[in-house]
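Hello forum,

I keep getting stuck at the same step: I have a sequence, I want structure tokens, and every attempt I make locally crashes halfway through. Rather than fight my setup again tonight, could one of you with a working pipeline run this one for me? It's a single chain of 262 residues.
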Amino acid sequence: MSAPSYPLRDSATMLRRNLLHARRYPSMTLGVVAMPVIILLLFVYVFGSSLSAGIGGGGDRAAYIAYVVPGILLMTVGSASTSTAVAVCTDMAEGVVARFRTMAISRSSILIGHVIGSVIQTMISLVLVTGVALAIGFRSNATAVEWVAAAGILALTALALTWLAVGIGLANPTAEAASNAVLPLSFLLPFMSSAFVPVESMPGWIRWFAEYQPFTTVIETLRGLLTGSGIGADGWLAVGWGVGLTVLGCLWSRNRFNRSSR
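Reply #2:
Ran it on my machine without issues. Output:
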């Protein structure tokens, strides 16, 4: 390869490729939004009154909307990681990445394009889900600064889960396997957290796991920011989890990518 390689330029090219794919196939973005919205409507309108009584809301559905929305937003981030894992796995399986490797482009730009594109799509999905939440009665006491801080926490979490999803996509041979492997991020961990009920209501070891797993920390931070009730130490813990998982996912993804080229 005689032509020089410019990582920033190449990353921008790969980002444009992924955004064009998203524009041509909007069903992927709609799919990311659909599941969290369905779960939001189900829990609010079917279980809302009963669960509101359980969290001290006196059976007021509006109180439960305020409680559940932060968890739904994080579930949206997890749901978006599924499409990332599938896209990366598909590129690997169909030989797209092998063709890119024969070109005079930065190797890291292939992964960076996927990551940045996925984070942008995730943030768009979060805006749509937030719009639905506001339409059904969600109201926030947060200041503009708290809204910006909440957006920053969600963006950091999206970056962390996206890098993990890239690693999952590289580690699995088929899109179906990658989709199944990412289920803990998109489904299991959100449900085994404080997203829908307080961790104090859970029994035994489930309560211990739910209390200390990263999704609960992020959800409690978002809940404190969006309701204006304060976040305490949860904010620093959420940032720490986000940075740590981003570094872990990035190193793992790079290692898997480099191994696959040998």
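DSSP finds twelve helices and no strands in the chain. If your local run keeps crashing, start a new thread with the error log.
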